[in-house]
Each structure stands twice: as structure tokens, then as C-alpha cells.
Specification:
heterotrimer, A alpha/beta (377), B mainly alpha (288), C mainly alpha (287), A: 377 residues, alpha/beta, Rossmann fold, 2 domains, 13 helices, 46% helix, globular, B: 288 residues, mainly alpha, two-stranded antiparallel sheet, two-stranded antiparallel ribbon
Chain lengths: 377, 288, 287
């Protein structure tokens, strides 16, 4: 047997011995926490979606500053971990372990795309650490873990609401759907197709983040669709779709999800008249407007995704409430959230967690007029 | 502790991937950018067999390896017509095609929704749910991969591979069926990648196509080039380095806005510097 | 209303964009004989410098565009000088150059992302975009300019390579570098020139991309890969080939989307490449 093989086998044997010893001494209790209240944030701080992660991080910090202005919560520490870029489940798992095992965090705010959330979900239940996501969630996330809460809008509604309104409100029976094959939009498209009672004269899946959709749009143009539904997971594709649709002379009204609305779309000049399904949050409240203004002032730019800001604020607030009521323990926080966040007044509106830990926030129909979103009555 | 165990497990998975790729690139001189496809095939096969058919992990692993091997045979056959840069380009093309298939064959793979809820392995009633036990399993996998790779490297088969790398036409003149050798090593590399994929699937318990893009293949190439081509211990060293480095950076505290870009820039600069000053990598004997 | 005219128009637009990137690539590949993956980054640099001058500094397009193009050429020169030239002097293999070019691409992309963030940016037009009827389909004014530019540049390159001394020297290097050197051609200087020209053309491609659809730091690689496919199927090293390959690729992609679903677009492009590599590796037009 070669030397290297022998070395390898001896390493394995040694590890088995260590493992045996550790298992005997390892007790399955959580460490006693003293010191500042730690709120973990796992989000995307690098790559294409960095603006999303920065928004979540900034909103969380601002929320803490606001809520703790009089020092009632003592010292509150925000620990932010980057799970950078779309793809990295492995990074999400590593970030989780760092937060929970090294920093001893019991409450985490989730600002990741759903593949990161899904990778971490089983770990939450295993370690009994509570995580709240103010981002949108579909069926995947809604059912992923007991200790995972969603207080952002439901993807199911992002599909069913347009499906209902296209027929009931606008009387469009022939509709074209352009969807990209991402987790977020896949879910929405599924629910849309199931709920739409008219005819889908064109149903195409586009490749995400490409730049040339003219042929797909040409197919839409010849399909005779009365309205076009654009359902993409990133603002890049939707901007191109809308711009190129208008360039090709397509006149039908366009209904898009909230991701489509942004400065890039407005710059194209094709944005006027586009309908947007905007996530519901308590826009009318002066406290909310004040908070958003504070965000703009402190971070020198408007919040790019306002419902993330309000949702993160709510997540921080309910977390602090829970921790000061029942102590810094993931299980107790979990139980508190389920029982106490019922008809709870947050910046997202009045919300309640159902048995699975999900709220029922939805969407409202708006239209782009002169560069701003105007509510459609 | 859990945190370190987690990093170690990931390093093991990438070590297995690196060993497989090194056999193909380092020993045989075939610049394959397709390793992530076989990684994905192993991962998806394991995921589907475990979630939909409740199969035992070890059986699913073998089937996953077999599936990857079959695909490797077919893809390798086509690739064998090419040389050097064209080989690299064509293998990249295959990676794109396989990835697109993962994304779009939703009846099989659930596309971007991915496959959640993959169970951890069980063996004779023992569940590998604890991370420490999973680490042991991963280390065993690395050991197996290493032994396989070493067997290949030290045998006459391995010597033939190196000869192919240096001067294929000459070898053919001597009557060696170089095609068979190239196919064999490509299949072995793919099998090891599938092994890593199976481990990955059961460790993270969730797979989706985003882990198997060409970026992943390129990353693996960097791992083995850094570690040293045609040096097996170098591959393990390369894998450990490139997994541990970002984790260390987590504690170093680059301003987060530029952290990932800094990492990318460092990694790119590393490739350039290596090529300029040490193309054989940290421990290699073969310069590309 | 038939969809075919629009598909033809779409193919022509896409073909023009692919031509621009394929031209630069095929020239450098024919002369230096290795895949330069950083070529895509040159395009991105051109786009971003122009963006920065146009939007951030508020300068006129008449300044911003030429400066952007020059910047792309300059970056190409720097990369060649610091990375490729030393490696080639040591007779490094193609694979080393390929990996080094990948490293250079990664660094450039990361630096661009650090300076301008990863959000995608588009180059704004001074006057509103106008749609034009073209062969029964609709294209925009910018796209028409891109088409004209692509054909003009291709023609310019053909004339340059055939009728100028430098151009003929470059062709000679592409045929046989050793002989060219023996004959007295300053291969180092010519090689630098090739890369600068390649970078300049890539810069044009990046700027048009910025106007037509928009740029983000990673836009260079997918663009380059299409250019590579176009160059190879058209016949690598051949300017006519690059143009032909670009339009052929565009046609296959767009008509492919029509008949097969759009999400398989990338797979179709690479499938086409592999078929060509298998059955006609020299491309349609041999050199």
C-alpha cells in the first residue's frame, strides 16, 4: 500500500476517533447569549443584484436606529453577511454557519434570492433559528421551513391578481405572456396560467438577461394579443422587452411586474402607459413616508425597492419586540411571531402570519404616467 | 466549529471535482471546460432518485455516476475530434447546452425552481444528518477519488496519457489507439465529477441549475491550474485554497460593496500572474 | 401579417452586432493564433468610457464616442503589452494565452463593476429614437447605423489588409510568423497594432451595444462568444468570413427561436458551432 494511501487512511481513522469523542461531549443546547442583541442579515452585496442587498442592509440599519432612538433595546448589533451573486448556495450555507455558529445569532433577516433561501431553510429548522424574509416568496419559500417566515408579498398573488383583473376589469380575453425561466417568475407564471380564464394566444419563455427579444416580440405581434403580460425576474429583460415592443410598433397595453419599473425603463421613453403590479405596502401612512424620506436623506438616494425597505423595517421591529418579550432564543422568537403578529400594524400594512408563517400581502395595480407610478382606481 | 466543518465539506467536494478535472486537463492535456455539466448530472440524478423514488443514496450515487459516464462517452467522442483551443471552445459549448437543458427540461429537473428536500445519505440505518458525519463521508470520497486518480497516474495508462499530452501524433504512429485513452480518462473525470455532484446535492439538500454554469467550469480550471497541473496533491491544495480564501475574506472586512468584485479581480489577476510567472501552478510539473 | 420580414430584419440587426465583434476577434485570432477572451472586455470598456463621458460628464457624443473607441484600443494595447507579448516571447502555448486572457477579462470586468456598479446602463440618444421600415420589418435608427458601421468597418479592414503595407505585413504574420520576421517585418510592433485595431473595433461594438440595448460589466463575454462562433463558422481569419458567419448565426438563431422555443437560443448557437467544428472546421470561407 502506498504511503499516501496509508496517510489518508490514518487521517480518516483519527477523525473517527475525534468524532466519537466530540459526540460524547456535545450537548444539544444553545449557547447562553449575553451582550448586545444581534440581528443577522444574509443578503446579496456583490454582483448584479448588489443594489438589492445594499437596500436591505441599509433599511435594516435605519430601522434599528429609528426604533432604538431612545435606547430602549439596549445595544443592537447588525451583522451582515454577503452571499454574493445569484448562484451560490454554498456561500449561503457558509454565511449561515458563520452567523449561527460563530456569531451566535438567533434571528436573521433574509435578503437573498430564493435559491439561497432554499439552501438555508433546512438548516433553520435544524438549528432552530428564526429567519424572516421581506422579499417576495412563492410556493417554494412558503413551505420551505417552519422557522422561515415571509412578510413580503406573495408570488401566488402576483400571478392570480393580473389574471383576474385582465378579464374582470379590462375585458381582455386574448393575452400574450412573456415569462423568463427564473424561480420567481416561474411560480408567478404557473399561477397566472391556472387563474386566467381567457385565451393565452402566445405563451413564451424567454432566456433571461439577453438583449434581443425582437423575434419573440414579432411572434407576439402576429398572435393578435389584446394585452401583453411581461413577467421577468430582472429589470434588464423587461426593459428590453418593453422598449423593443414599442419599437416594433406593438400597440397593445403592457402589464408588468414591479421589477420592470425603474430608472432604466423610464429612460427608454417607452414606459408611458405601462401597467405595473406594485407590491402592497402602507404607502399612505405618514410614518412610512417619513421613514422613506429618512432613507433618502441618509443614503443619498431613494430606496430602489420601497417595499423591501418597509418589509425590512417590519422584520426588524417584530424581531426586537419578540426578543425583548421572550428572550434571545430562536424557538421562542418563532412562537412569539406566530402568536403575536396577528393584525399587527407594520409599515407593510396590517399583517398577520398564518400557520405557515406567511403573510397575505399582495399587489396593487398602477400605471406609469409621466415617470411616476399612479394608482389605477 | 460547525462553520469550519462546513468549509471543510465544501473543500472536499471541490477537491474531488479538481482531481477528476486534473486527470483530463493536467495529465492528458485536454482543456475541458465542461466539468460542471457532469457535476450537475451527478447532482440532479441523485436529487431526482432520492426525492422522487426514495432510493438509497449510495445506489443513486452509482446510477448518477453511470449516467454521467454515458454522457461523457458521447460528449467525449465528439470532443475528441478537436484540439487545443477548439477543444476548449467545443467543451464550453457542451456545458452551455447541458446547462440550458437543466434549466428548460422542467418536467425532469423542475427548471429554476430546483429540487428541494433531498435527504441526507443513510447507510445501514445510520443517517448522515450531522455535519461531522457528513465530513467524514466527504473525506472518504476524497480518499477514493485520490486513490482512483493516483492509480490512473501511476499506471501505464497514465504514462500513455502524458505521452498523448506531449505528442499525440507520435503515439498514434506507434499504434496506440489514442482515442480510447482520451475517452477513458474523460469518462473517469466525469465520474468523479458526478460523485462530487451527488455529495453536493445531499449536503445542501437543494439543487438548481445555477450551480452548474460555465463559470463553475472556469473556476474549476483555475483551481487545478493554481494547484498545479498533473499533480494530484496540488489539486487538493488548489481546491482548499480557493474555497478557504473567500471565507477568510469574510472576516477581513473589505467594504462590502466591492468585496465580491475584489475577489473576482484577485482571482483574475492570480490567473494572469500564474501564467506569466509560474504556469505550472503551486505544485505542478506540467506547464500548460 | 407574416412574421418572416420581421425575422429577416431582426437577423440583419443581430448580424450587424455580431459582425462588429467577430471582425476584431477574427483579425487577432488569425494573426496571433490564440483565443483572446479579453476581447469582450475591450468592447465593454469602449461602452463604459463613452457612457461615462456622455452621461456623467455630459459631453457631446462627438467627443464621447471617439474617446471611447480610443480607450478600448488603448486597453487592448496595454493588455497585449503586459500580458500577451511577454507570454508570446516565451513561446507559451495557446492554452496559457487562453487562460491568461481569461484572467485579464476577469480583472477588467471586476474593475468596471467596481467603478460603475453592476447595474446596467444605457447610452442615451440626443434625439428620440425613430423606427424605420426596412424590408417589411421595423428597425430603429441606431440599429441602421450599426449595420452601416459594421459593413463600412469590414470594408475598411479588407482594404487595409490588402492595400496597405502594414496590412499586408499583418497578413504575412498570420500566414507564417517566423518567415515574416525573417523577411524583416517588425512582428512585435505589428502585433501590437493588430491588437489595437481589434480593440478599436471591439470598442465600436460596445458603444453600439450601449445605445441599442445597454451594457453591464459582464456583457462582454456572451457578446464575444457569439463573435467567436460567427468567426469560426464563417471561416476564421477571413474578414468576409466574419461577416458571413455573423449573419448566418443571426439567421439561424432568430429562425430557430421562431420554430423552437426562445429559451434554447444559446444551445442552438453552440450546437451550430459544434456542428461546424465537426464537419467544416475551417468554416464556410476558407482563408
Amino acid at each position: 500500500m502506498s504511503r499516501t494511501s496509508k496517510t489518508l487512511i490514518s487521517i480518516v481513522v483519527v477523525l473517527l476517533i475525534i468524532w466519537g469523542g466530540v459526540s460524547i461531549y456535545k450537548k444539544n443546547t444553545k449557547p447562553v447569549i449575553t451582550g448586545p442583541i444581534k440581528i443577522g442579515v444574509m443578503t446579496i452585496l456583490s454582483g448584479d443584484l448588489a443594489f438589492l442587498g445594499e437596500n436591505v442592509r441599509n433599511s435594516a440599519q435605519l430601522a434599528i436606529d429609528d426604533l432604538n432612538k431612545d435606547g430602549r433595546y439596549g445595544q443592537v448589533q447588525l451583522i451582515v453577511e454577503d452571499v454574493g451573486g445569484l448562484a451560490d448556495q454554498a456561500k449561503a450555507v457558509s454565511a449561515f454557519h458563520k452567523l449561527v455558529d460563530v456569531d451566535h445569532v438567533q434571528y436573521i433577516i433574509d435578503g437573498m434570492t430564493s435559491n439561497g433561501t432554499m439552501a438555508v431553510a433546512p438548516l433553520l429548522d435544524q438549528s432552530r433559528v428564526t429567519m424572516v424574509t421581506p422579499l417576495t416568496g412563492g410556493e417554494n419559500v412558503d413551505n420551505a421551513a417552519e422557522y422561515l417566515f415571509r412578510n413580503g408579498p406573495s408570488d401566488i398573488k402576483a400571478g392570480t391578481l393580473p389574471a383576474e383583473q385582465l378579464m374582470s376589469k379590462f375585458h381582455y380575453t386574448k393575452v400574450a405572456l412573456l415569462s423568463d425561466n427564473a424561480e420567481y417568475t416561474n411560480d408567478i407564471a404557473k399561477h397566472f396560467r391556472a387563474a386566467f380564464k381567457g385565451t393565452l394566444v402566445s405563451d413564451q419563455t424567454i432566456a433571461p438577461s439577453k438583449t434581443d427579444y425582437r423575434t419573440e416580440l414579432a411572434k407576439v405581434k402576429t398572435s393578435g394579443a389584446e394585452a401583453i403580460v411581461i413577467n421577468t425576474a430582472d429589470g434588464v429583460s423587461s426593459t428590453y422587452l418593453i422598449k423593443q415592443a414599442r419599437e416594433l410598433g406593438i400597440k397593445a397595453p403592457i402589464f408588468a411586474n414591479f421589477i420592470a419599473f425603474g430608472p432604466n425603463l423610464l429612460k427608454t421613453g417607452a414606459a408611458g402607459g405601462v401597467y405595473i403590479y406594485d407590491p402592497e405596502f402602507n404607502e399612505g401612512s405618514s410614518a412610512v413616508q417619513a421613514f422613506l424620506a429618512e432613507y433618502t436623506q441618509k443614503y443619498r438616494a431613494d430606496s430602489p425597492i420601497r417595499f423591501h425597505t418597509t418589509g425590512t423595517y417590519d422584520a426588524v421591529k417584530m424581531g426586537l419586540e419578540a426578543i425583548t418579550s421572550v428572550g434571545y432564543d430562536g424557538t421562542k422568537i418563532h412562537d412569539y411571531l406566530l402568536s403575536h403578529i396577528q393584525n399587527w400594524a407594520g409599515y407593510n400594512g396590517t399583517v398577520s402570519f398564518d400557520a405557515k408563517g406567511n403573510t397575505q400581502t399582495g399587489f396593487v395595480l398602477k400605471q406609469i404616467k409621466n415617470g411616476a407610478l399612479v394608482l389605477v382606481p | 466549529m460547525e462553520y469550519l466543518i462546513n468549509v471543510a465539506i465544501l473543500a472536499c467536494i471541490y477537491a474531488v471535482l479538481a482531481l477528476g478535472l486534473n486527470l483530463v486537463v493536467g495529465f492528458t492535456g485536454l482543456l475541458s471546460v465542461a466539468q460542471a455539466s457532469f457535476y450537475g448530472l451527478g447532482a440532479y440524478a441523485t436529487a431526482i432518485l432520492l426525492t422522487r423514488f426514495g432510493m438509497n443514496f449510495f445506489l443513486a450515487l452509482l446510477i448518477g455516476v453511470a449516467i454521467a459516464a454515458v454522457f461523457a462517452l458521447l460528449i467525449g467522442l465528439v470532443l475528441s475530434k478537436f484540439k487545443d483551443d477548439y477543444y476548449a471552445l467545443a467543451s464550453l459549448g457542451f456545458n452551455v447546452i447541458v446547462y440550458t437543458a437543466f434549466l428548460n427540461l422542467q418536467n425532469i429537473t423542475r427548471g429554476p425552481l430546483g429540487i428541494p428536500g433531498i435527504a441526507r445519505p443513510t447507510l445501514f440505518g445510520f443517517h448522515f444528518t450531522g455535519n461531522l458525519s457528513f465530513l467524514i463521508l466527504s473525506l472518504v470520497a476524497v480518499a477514493i477519488a485520490y486513490l482512483v486518480a493516483q492509480f490512473v497516474a501511476r499506471s501505464s495508462f497514465g504514462r500513455a496519457l502524458k505521452a498523448i499530452r506531449e505528442d499525440e501524433p507520435a503515439l498514434r504512429v506507434f499504434g496506440y489507439r489514442t482515442l480510447h485513452f482520451k475517452l477513458a480518462v474523460f469518462v473517469i473525470g466525469a465520474a468523479l465529477a458526478a460523485l462530487a455532484g451527488a455529495l453536493f446535492a445531499t449536503y445542501i439538500t437543494f439543487v438548481d441549475p445555477s450551480s452548474f454554469t460555465i463559470n463553475e467550469s472556469i473556476f474549476l480550471l483555475a483551481v487545478i491550474i493554481l494547484g498545479g497541473l498533473a499533480n494530484l496533491r496540488g489539486s487538493i491544495l488548489g481546491a482548499v485554497s480557493l474555497i478557504v480564501l473567500p471565507e477568510i475574506l469574510r472576516f477581513v472586512g473589505f467594504p462590502t460593496e466591492v468585496a465580491a468584485q475584489m475577489r473576482q479581480a484577485i482571482y483574475g489577476a492570480l490567473l494572469v500572474i500564474l501564467m506569466l510567472y509560474r504556469p505550472q501552478g503551486l505544485m505542478g510539473e506540467y506547464k500548460l | 401579417m407574416s412574421i418572416v420580414p420581421q425575422l429577416v430584419a431582426n437577423s440583419i440587426i443581430a448580424g450587424a452586432m455580431y459582425t462588429l465583434i467577430a471582425l476584431g476577434f477574427t483579425l487577432t485570432f488569425a494573426t496571433a493564433k490564440f483565443f483572446n477572451l479579453a476581447h469582450g472586455a475591450f468592447a465593454t470598456v469602449g461602452g463604459y468610457i463613452t457612457y461615462s463621458l456622455l452621461v456623467q460628464a455630459g459631453l457631446s457624443p462627438w467627443i464621447a464616442i471617439p474617446v471611447g473607441i480610443v480607450a478600448a484600443g488603448a486597453v487592448a494595447f496595454i493588455v497585449h503589452h503586459t500580458v500577451f507579448a511577454p507570454l508570446r516571447k516565451r513561446h507559451s502555448s495557446n492554452m496559457v494565452l487562453l487562460v491568461a486572457s481569461l484572467g485579464a477579462y476577469t480583472v477588467l470586468q471586476a474593475v468596471i463593476a467596481m467603478i460603475w456598479t453592476s447595474e446596467f446602463k444605457s447610452l442615451p440618444l440626443k434625439t428620440a429614437e425613430r423606427s424605420i421600415e426596412f424590408l417589411g420589418g421595423i428597425i430603429t435608427r441606431t440599429q441602421l447605423f450599426a449595420l452601416i458601421a459594421a459593413l463600412l468597418i469590414a470594408a475598411a479592414l479588407i482594404i487595409f489588409l490588402k492595400f496597405t503595407r502594414a496590412g499586408r505585413a499583418i497578413t504575412a504574420i498570420g500566414d507564417d510568423e517566423e518567415v515574416a520576421r525573417v523577411v524583416g517585418i517588425n512582428t512585435n510592433r505589428m502585433m501590437a497594432l493588430v491588437f489595437v485595431i481589434g480593440g478599436v473595433v471591439a470598442g465600436v461594438s460596445g458603444i453600439f451595444t450601449g445605445y441599442d440595448t445597454g451594457i453591464e460589466p459582464g456583457v462582454g463575454m456572451p457578446l464575444l462568444l457569439k463573435g467567436v462562433i460567427a468567426a469560426i463558422i464563417g471561416g476564421v481569419g477571413n474578414i468576409y468570413g466574419a461577416v458571413l458567419g455573423a449573419f448566418l448565426l443571426a439567421v439561424v438563431e432568430n429562425f430557430g427561436i421562431w420554430k423552437i422555443a426562445a429559451e434554447w437560443k444559446d444551445a442552438i448557437a453552440f450546437g451550430l458551432l459544434i456542428l461546424f467544428l465537426l464537419f467544416r472546421p475551417r468554416g464556410i470561407l476558407q482563408k
